[in-house]
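call fold(seq) -> tokens
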Amino acid sequence: MALTFSTRLKAAPTSEQDIARINEDPGFGVHFTDHMAAIDWDSERGWVDARIEPFADYVLSPAGAVLHYAQEVFEGLKAYHRADGTVWLFRPERNARRFANSCTRLALPELPVEDFVNSVRELVSVDARWVPTGDEQSLYLRPFSVASEPFLGVRPSRGVRYAVIASPVGAYFSGGVAPVDIWVESHYSRVANGGTGEAKCGGNYAASLLPQELARDRGCNQVMFVDNAEHRWLEELGGMNVCVVTRAGELLTPPLNGNILPGVTRDSLLALAPEAGLEPVERPIDIAEVYAGLVDGTITEMFACGTAAVITPIGTLTNEEGRHEVPVPADGGRTIALRTMLLDIQYGRVDDTRGWTQRVR
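ret:
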């Protein structure tokens, strides 16, 4: 049976004027709405006390398991304000299923899909006035679960906190939709075979931070990882999946082999590819094949994709041997065509024939 949410509103909510001021230039993940959704879990009672409450700091014991063994997972999705004033979500059930899979891998209790979706819907409904209305702005939603039991033994926590917080956001990259320069990392790995690559957990992102800083030191915006065993097979960026467009009309992306996060944007683009005149293909991609394809023209475009950044064209790949230019068509090519198709569905500018969107209010 689905949980029922209680609601306790903030005594002095943010004024409409202050929200409007924040949403003029919200940045990304800087400002937070007045409320959050929360559910508790323990090994005796299961999931209890589903609620909407004022956004507030956590009080967590210094012995809290998450602080010592990184037993936590999270998700990322958005709410979109449409031209008619309604607010919608995009494929939240997909995020809910991925969240459950991540929980399983990190030995956390699975939150039922219905309760995950309801927690998001309830929060967005209460804080709907925070959903920005500017071009490509949205309300970014961050569900997460953390091990909260104060215990230093190495075993799954018997206490867990689940919450959803929300942040009005603009473009992920401050420069807008512009080609990014990528450092191809061949020493550090994001994940290892049999590890947590397909789970959305903080440890994967923590492992990418040093390589990301080293990429910036080399003048690149982002880092792209290859496999940890042979250091040759494309995997993903620090926080986004990667796709390749070929002269033969293929949309290539590495297969979900346990090391790669099953991105909701990635899956959506594979489904939309035929409408953009592309054949979706999931197969291993050798980085040497990419370099050769950029030279002989068999690779015509590359892009990164994810919920936060949507789709971002890749302009260069750089490794220790040099810089490789990636074609960026003047009209944006298939990359921008796919991006427009996806955004048009999310913002309701075209009919959603796949049932991907759901109205909140």
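The mean pLDDT is 96.
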